Amino acid sequence: MMKYLLTLLFALAVKGCVGQNANISNRYFPESFLFGAATAAYQIEGGWNEDGKGESMWDRFVHDNPSRVADRQSGDVACDSYHKWREDIQLLKELGVKLYRFSIAWTRIMPDGTPAVINQAGIDYYKNFIQELRANDIEPLVTLYHWDLPQHLLELGGWLNVQTADYFAEYARVVFENLGPYVKLWATVNEPKTTCMNGHGWGTHAPGLKLIGDGVYQCAYVQLLAHAKAWRVYDEEFRASQGGKISLVLDCTWAEPASDSALDAEAAERDLQFNLGWYANPVYRGNWPQEMIDRIANRSSLEGYPFSRLPEFTPEQIDLVNGTFDYFGLNMYTASLVQWQDDSPISIPDYSLDKNTNNYVSPDWPKSVSDWLTSYPSGMRKLLNWVNNKYHPSEIFVTENGWSDNGQLDDQGRLTYLQSYLSNMLDAILEDGINVVGYTTWSFMDNFEWHLGYTEKFGILQVDFNSPNRTRTFKSSGKWYQRLATTRCLLDQCVD
Ligand code: PNW
Description:
Layout: H1 2-15, E1 34-38, H2 41-44, H3 57-64, H4 81-95, E2 99-103, H5 106-109, H6 120-135, E3 139-145, H7 151-155, H8 163-179, E4 185-190, H9 192-200, H10 215-242, E5 245-251, E6 254-257, H11 262-284, H12 290-302, H13 315-321, E7 328-331, E8 335-340, H14 351-355, E9 357-360, H15 378-391, E10 396-400, H16 412-430, E11 436-442, E12 461-463, E13 472-474, H17 476-487
Parallel strand pairs: 1-2, 1-11, 2-3, 3-4, 4-5, 5-7, 6-8, 7-10, 10-11
Antiparallel strand pairs: 8-9, 12-13
The structure holds 4-nitrophenyl beta-D-glucopyranoside.
């Protein structure tokens, strides 16, 4: 009897049916699965004006007016990774990851963003960095643009000027020429939606523009052209000799219908189209989502515009953008409940009125210290299914996913979050047959969290920003992730 009970208990424990692990998958990740971690240049590097680096729009944004950042801090020093990069690579190695996603600062390669000056010191920095990663058996996933536009290009109009797309393609060419031989995975632009919304709609991020009715659409248009031109440069000039993969990285909040009603389902679908479809549809299917085209044209006309506030792609541009992907890069953090609502009367042009859904979060979902981030783990599996059904990518990388807190070493909230999201991702792989091939958690270490400064922390390693050494220390989640990366198992034990 006793033996039977013990066997039963053991079986339950192995199945993960005990305590807080109730819904965590006890199956192994595929052997080929790449576990990794992610960062971005402005958030970790520091060295903001060293060795010929030019000024980016984030440098200017925070220096001009420190009150734009919650703690009046900047990325001038950040994690000091510009100097501590060898130590970072050793920590990545210790973490056991096989993939590191980081970004290149455009202004280190081209100080003012134009081909007029190419800064060899910047090229050398990244070349050394990438070669050292490779020497440690870590695959680089290199993002060309993670929000740090050269200030000079901002002054030319930034992401509202279509010519910025040509400058971006030129920058990409220089990077491929110099670093392409050592890189197999590229991302062009990180989260165009968040830069367009935060930087050009609400004005909380650089360049601080509040153009929620039109600037956000122009910004999306130019960033998509930039992505596509850079992709074509790679495809036509470098793919044959370098043999890498290149795509863009899109972020999306899962939209859960607030009820079983058909109207809420319609609103949730529209919400996804206005968030992810906005950027994915032109690249994976050929144009803006039809619903966006129709709704924005209709409201624009009622507002008195002779054309739509959503820029129209020419047939040539549709061909340019369509098909510019090799994988789907998805950043996924959170979810909202979405409710249908009546269209609002015509007033000031606004993206939110164009989309017209009522979004809120459930009080049952654990909240992080961030006002936008709550935990709804099954949103991960649902979103992966949505992406797969809509766009049929041959491969998906989850390029960001993570949780914010106050930076404590014993970060059980983050650990639980990561475990439950990864479990849903694993279900999507093993139960739903979705080809997620890699995951880079946000973030490798605490860093400069944009307009929130150092008030919120996303790292699985802690960084002591009070110490000139910027001492890095593994958190509980880091130790847990280290075990996961080595065992491919989310629990203490897994079964085949
Ligand atoms: C990402 N959302 O932005 C960025 O790529 C990182 O640089 C940043 O540090 C990280 O997330 C944490 O904020 C996002 O509202 C901002 O779903 C907002 C959302 C998603 C991603």
